[in-house]
Amino acid sequence: MQPAAARQLEDYLDGLLVRRRLSAATVQAYGHDLAVFRTFCEASSIDAWDQVKTYHVRDYLVSRHDQGLGNRSLQRELSSLRGFFAHLVKQHGFSGNPADAARAPRAARTLPKPLDTDQMAGLLDVETDDELETRDLAIWELFYSSGLRLAELVGLNLTDLDLQEGSVLIRHGKGNKSRIVPVGRKAREALDHWLMLRGNYAPPGESALFLSRLGKRIAPRTVHARLERWQLRLGIAEHLHPHRLRHSFASHLLESSGDLRAVQELLGHANLSTTQIYTHLDYQHLADVYDRTHPRARKKPDTTDPPA
Question: Facing residues of 208 across strands?
């Protein structure tokens, strides 16, 4: 490509590193994506970025797909192209972004497999050996009882918990939305046991509900590590992570109630479609709920007289 095009690409990557302060690894990934696209352009006799049209971007995505690139990688490369051309529009007066109208295949959403109720009972019906394990059990119970995200759980303050009412306030959920969710009996018991020990770790004025060994708010990576430790202690073969406990909460509640809207509110999802995918709701279950509840779908009771 023309020297000017190479300089524009270098300036863009430098800006990501210096002005936007992205990590070196992230900038390197952007650079790799754009270098591959640049090679494609050169092979297509394109020697300046303003010569790139939307159909070029589409042809590029098709070629990458043919090379065996997965959907997620295609989406990432398209995102890299959009960011670069948006920069050229803003900083170099390009007339439009050719990557905006291109679409990459949607990546298939992978879902964690929920634990069944017996597996959850085996995970939670355990005698704790020390104070930190008492804290850990309270964390696992709260995950499963209330369906919290990891960031929501570690962000809880002592004042967010109301054991008398059996509720917990999530002040900063996804999208910075707050919600109140119930806390079940088993989780309240486990939390009560932890609160009796919390004072052994909490320095004056500490507000966090869950504390580390050093008396600081527990970190997400610590929760991950402690759950892995719990898994090994119980000899559980399947890998456990906090999101799997949230997923199990949603799946079990939905299986029992069939109330998609209620589960949506408890999970803090903005869209019902997210809840439907998240809870691994199958079509047959939806159809059964529909047949039982929709006023134009319910079967009329059989009023015919039995044969004499």
Answer: 157
Is 278 a residue of the active site? yes
| Closest by CA position to 59, among listed 46, 47, 92 | 46
Q: Of residues 92, 229, 243, 298, which has the active-site annotation? A: 243
Asked if pLDDT for residue 66 goes beyond 90, the answer is no
> Which of the residues 56, 87, 244, 269 is marked catalytic?
269
- Among residues 56, 87, 246, 247, the one annotated as catalytic is 246
CA-based angle 219:221:223, to the nearest 5?
75
pTM: 0.58
Q: Give the domain ranges of the chain.
A: 3-92, 117-292
Which candidate in 65, 76, 149, 193 is catalytic? 149
For the stretch 203-239, pLDDT in tens is 999 999 999 999 999 999 999 999 999 999 898 877 8
Active site residue 144: no
Phi, psi of 208 (to 5 degrees): -65, 140
243 is catalytic: yes
The separation between CA 229 and the C-alpha centre of its own chain, rounded to angstroms, equals 23
| Architecture of the domain spanning 117-292 | Orthogonal Bundle (1.10)
Q: Identify whether 174 is a catalytic site residue.
A: yes
Catalytic residue among 174, 177, 233, 298: 174
Domain boundaries 3-92, corresponding CATH code: 1.10.150
pLDDT (tens digit, 9 = 90+) per residue, 189-204? 999 999 999 999 999 9
Phi/psi at 209 (5° precision) = -70, -45
Host H or E run for residue 180: strand 179-182
Could you report the per-residue pLDDT of 126-169, keeping only the tens digit for each? 999 899 999 999 999 999 988 898 999 999 999 999 999 999 99
